[in-house]
Amino acid sequence: MSNGQAVSVTFTEVGTFAYQCPIHPRMEGAVNVVPQGRAYTTAAQAATDAAVEQGLIRALVDPNRAGALSRTSRTQLEDGSSLWSVPVGPRVQTPHGFLELAEYFPSDLSIQPGDTVRWLFESPHTVTFLPRGAPLPSPVPPSAKPSDQYDGSSFYHSGTLTYTGERLGVYELRFPDQGAFEYVCLLHVPEGQRGIVRVE
Questions:
Q1: Angle CA(10)–CA(11)–CA(12) in degrees, nearest 5?
Q2: Is residue 10 part of a domain?
Q3: Counting beta carbons within 10 angstroms of the beta carbon of residue 196, is it exposed (0 to 12), middle (13 to 18) or buried (19 or more)?
């Protein structure tokens, strides 16, 4: 589902019913259906509880965003070019699971011709360079990498990568030519997850 969409479920029996997002581990919730006449959560109380919880969670975002930016690094290689490491989608631990920052850190990166960018995936995302004017593919296609060097016009796509529990997902491209090259996460375009590599 995309941002702004909704789904409704009607509960006809008393009980506790757990639900989850199969895309995001530990993103879980539960609906407690109580017998008639028992106290239940009113809409006003639900709105108040949600506002308090959102405030607590949002207070965690800025420090984690700063931490992700601090992990952006540049390493000089033997041939004189640079290798840039760009964290993708870090997770913010909260009392009820995690909050995923659908961002590239940084989302606007300036490098020199011949430099390489290595994206490090902490949660499910893609790095996708589309040919100019091409529509967003749906569903998310398999990975595509015509070359280790980005040619500025072909379809380059990491596939959905994430942290496996042992190591970060990695996608790497070298940029030989000058230009401004935009890319997106196909999973989070509706949330605005976009990036640009400026080769100057």
A1: 115
A2: no
A3: middle
d(CA 68, CA 195) in angstroms, rounded, equals: 15
Range of the domain at 130: 61-199
For the stretch 155-181, pLDDT in tens is 999 999 988 878 889 999 999 999 999
Confidence of residue 60 (pLDDT cuts 50, 70, 90): confident
d(CA 47, CA 52): 9
Q: How many domains does the chain have?
A: 1
Q: Is 183 contained in some domain?
A: yes
What 191-195 contacts at long range (C-beta under 8 Å, 24+ apart), as own/partner pairs, is 191/3, 191/102, 192/102, 193/102, 193/103, 193/104, 193/125, 194/107, 195/86, 195/104, 195/107, 195/108, 195/109, 195/127
**Residue range 23-58, pLDDT digits in tens:** 766 778 899 999 999 999 999 999 999 899 888 888
> How far apart are the two ends of the chain, measured CA to CA in Å?
38
Question: What CATH number does residue 134 fall under?
Answer: 2.60.40.420
Share of the chain above pLDDT 70, in %: 97
- What tokens appear for 4 in the block? 């702004």
125 falls within a domain: yes
